[in-house]
């Protein structure tokens, strides 16, 4: 009799445990499908958490919703809104643990899937929002922006390379180890005088030289074909001197050359500031956040998507919070000086020096 009672008791306990688990599942699923920070957080908190305004997030939701909703028709699946917010929060922090603690009802696996899905959709559908100036009106606008900095004419962009830390890949790991000793994607960016990205190339392992990356871009091929129309980029001495890519003098011999170097440095500094703001806005790119713990291909996609989102934030004049100062990472990112001085590039540079800084 005691044995039968014991079995009956165990069966009742099992039924109660199943009910508890069912209730917990329902509650978690309700959170995942119903909790919406956009409805409860003030504007300042939304920008701090997600780096974009409420309106911009709703705009992005309109972009991703048709492509993510098909994935969510099973019971209690993550909604497109939750997936988008989770991805934005990950971009902002670089930390799975902070996102998991935000009450969105995510597991680590579901967060990883959400980041991948949202990144792929945004990469595909936002890419056209970043473009190098090609029309006379756009070129004139960019030229005027740079001319206002230090008087240099016909500047069409400032170029630089930056290292985005990642987890060391299991395949070809040594190729990703940069000169600073950690795994990274060496990313080439070109920006306007206002710090808006005009071109981003994120595909090369951290050991790759800036000059090699530049010479293997579509932008370089366009410049070689005369696509810059007599305009030029400004780059540091890690890039080759070309008629369409002006670098500083390694050792200025005259006062006009020194004057050119000063104007070049001040003008090109806009790209260093742009990179600093970008990495601080989206700390997943920042070494202080531990690096992107993703497959290299996914890392490259995240890099480009965050650059697109940075442009969105910049156009809306969304500032970083006052207590989030910039970290000077870029001072360590500059490559050694190289001696690739094309004669035509030297001629263009000297002509600019003579016209602007000569007696």
From TrEMBL:
Chief localisation class: cytoplasm
GO MF annotation, one: nuclease activity
GO (cellular component) term, any one: nucleus
Subcellular location: Cytoplasm; Nucleus
Start and end residues of each DDE Tnp4 domain: 159-311
UniProt entry keywords in alphabetical sequence: Cytoplasm, Hydrolase, Metal-binding, Nuclease, Nucleus
TM regions (residue ranges): none
Record Pfam families: DDE_Tnp_4
UniProt cofactor(s): a divalent metal cation
Signal sequence segment: none
Function: Transposase-derived protein that may have nuclease activity. Does not have transposase activity.
Family (UniProt): Belongs to the HARBI1 family.
Protein's recorded name: Putative nuclease HARBI1
Source organism of the structure: Coilia grayii
């Amino acid at each position: 009799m005691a044995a039968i009672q014991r079995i009956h008791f165990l069966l009742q306990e099992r039924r109660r445990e199943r009910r508890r688990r069912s209730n917990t599942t329902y509650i978690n699923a309700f959170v995942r499908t119903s909790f919406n920070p956009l409805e409860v957080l003030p504007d300042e908190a939304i920008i701090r958490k997600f780096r974009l305004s409420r309106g911009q997030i709703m705009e992005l939701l309109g972009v991703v919703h048709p492509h993510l909703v098909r994935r969510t028709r099973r019971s209690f699946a993550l909604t497109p809104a939750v997936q988008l917010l989770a991805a934005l929060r990950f971009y902002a922090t670089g930390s799975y643990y902070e996102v998991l603690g935000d009450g969105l009802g995510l597991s680590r696996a579901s967060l990883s899937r959400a980041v991948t899905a949202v990144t792929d959709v945004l990469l595909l559908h936002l890419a056209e929002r970043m473009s190098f100036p090609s029309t006379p009106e756009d070129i004139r606008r960019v030229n005027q922006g740079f001319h206002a900095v230090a008087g240099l004419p016909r500047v069409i962009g400032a170029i630089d390379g930056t290292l985005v830390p990642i987890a060391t890949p299991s395949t070809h790991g040594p190729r990703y180890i940069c000169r600073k000793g950690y795994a990274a994607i060496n990313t080439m960016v070109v920006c306007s005088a206002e710090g808006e990205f005009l071109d981003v190339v994120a595909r090369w392992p951290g050991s790759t030289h800036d000059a090699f990356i530049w010479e293997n871009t579509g932008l370089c091929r366009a410049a070689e074909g005369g696509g810059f129309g007599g305009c030029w980029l400004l780059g540091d001495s890690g890039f080759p001197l070309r008629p369409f890519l002006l670098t500083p003098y390694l050792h200025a011999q005259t006062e006009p050359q020194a004057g050119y170097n000063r104007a070049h440095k001040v003008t090109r500094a806009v790209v260093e500031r742009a990179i600093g703001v970008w990495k601080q806005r989206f700390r997943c790119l920042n070494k202080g956040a531990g690096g992107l713990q993703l497959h290299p291909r996914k890392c490259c996609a995240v890099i480009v998507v965050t650059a697109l989102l940075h442009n969105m934030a910049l156009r809306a004049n969304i500032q970083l919070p006052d207590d989030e100062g910039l970290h000077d990472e870029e001072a360590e990112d500059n490559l050694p000086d190289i001696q690739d001085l094309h004669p035509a590039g030297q001629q263009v540079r000297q002509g600019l020096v003579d016209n602007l800084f000569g007696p």
